[in-house]
Amino acid sequence: MTATPGQLDEPAAGADSEAAVVVRTAKPEEIPAVGRLTTEVYRAAELGDEEYLEHVGRADDRALRACLLVAQGEDFGSLLGTITLAVAGGDYADIAQPGEAELRMLAVAPAAAGRGIGRCLVEACHERAAAAGAWQVVCSVEEQNARALRFYARLGYLRSPDRDWWPIATVKLLAFTRELDGACAPNETGAEARM
Ligand SMILES: CC(C)(COP(=O)(O)OP(=O)(O)OC[C@H]1O[C@@H](n2cnc3c(N)ncnc32)[C@H](O)[C@@H]1OP(=O)(O)O)[C@@H](O)C(=O)NCCC(=O)NCCS
C-alpha cells in the first residue's frame, strides 16, 4: 500500500490500491502525541543522545517557532508521521541561508514505514516552502542514517559537502539541498522566504 499526497489541508482521493494521506499543520491537541512519536522514532533509529531525544520531543516548541506538520491516515484517526519546516533565520534553521527553507525532525510511525508517508511530508514542505518564497530546501542527515540518506536521494536531494557540519564532535551531519521546481535562484529574485 502506497500513500498519495493530498492537498495541504484536505484528504487526497487515492487510487483503490493506495491509502490517502492528509498533510496539515498539527492541531494543538495533537502536539503531545507528535512529540512522543518523534522521540520514539528517533530513539529506535538511534539518532542522538537522551538530551537530543528530549529536544525532539518538544513538538510544542516547534509548533510555536516553526511550522509543525503531521500526516494523518485516511481513517482520520492515526498519526502517521511528522516533519518541521523552518526558514532561514528561524529558530529551527540550522543551515538554511536566505531564500532557503529547512526540513527538521522528520519521523514516520513504525506501522506506516515503507508506504511513502515520508515523501508526502517532504512534498508538502516543498509546496509550503515555495509558497513562502523559498527557492531551495536544505536538510542535514547523520552520516550513519543509511535509510534517510537513501530516502532523500530518492526525492532528488543532492549532497552539499561544503555545508556538512558537526553539532557535537562525535556526530557528523551531511548537508543536502534540493532546488524547488520552477524556483529562481536568489540572485535572480533577491527574495527571502517568509512563513
Ligand atoms: C527515513 C524515513 C522518514 C522514511 O520514511 P518512509 O515513509 O518509511 O519512506 P519510504 O516509504 O520511502 O521507505 C523507506 C524505507 O523503508 C523500507 N520499508 C518498507 N517497509 C517497511 C516496514 N514495514 N518497516 C520498516 N521499513 C520498511 C522501504 O523499503 C525503504 O527502504 P530503503 O531505504 O532501503 O529503500 C523513516 O524511515 C524514518 O522516520 N526514519 C527515522 C527518522 C529519520 O531518520 N528521520 C530523518 C532524519 S534526517
Question: What does this protein structure show overall?
Answer:
This protein has 6 helices and 9 strands, in the order ββαααβββαβαβββα. With 195 residues, the protein is α+β, with helices and mostly antiparallel strands. It has one domain (18-189): 3-Layer(aba) Sandwich (Aminopeptidase). Strands 1, 2, 3, 4, 5, 6, 7, 8 and 9 form a 9-stranded mixed β-sheet that branches. The longest helix has 15 residues, at 117-131. The protein starts with a strand and ends in a 6-residue tail after the last helix. Residues 4-17 have low confidence and may be disordered. Bound molecules: coenzyme A. Residues 41-42, 45, 47, 106-108, 113-119, 141, 145, 147-148, 150-151 line the site of coenzyme A (COA).
